[in-house]
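Structure tokens please, single chain.
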Amino acid sequence: MSFYDWFGHQIDIILLFVQTSSHVQISDVSFRNIKGTSVSIVAVSLVCSDSVPCQNVELENIDLKFYKKGKKTNAVCMNVNGSSSGVENPPSCL
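Here you go.
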């Protein structure tokens, strides 16, 4: 998934969001080989329901750099079970 900023630069960001009181469970989701630049410090945000957490979420070879030099991106996970492998930038929260 690619997005573009005001200047036409490509921005990549991973978002998985389920309302925290939802009864919908997400499972078997993979994010693979994603490389790019983020305008947000939080480049990976995985937020799932507290009553039915996301299961089997996989992050593989994720390389998202912050658009300003000298700062690093980070990842936030809530109610997510899964694994990560390969390149991990930002460091995986799984």
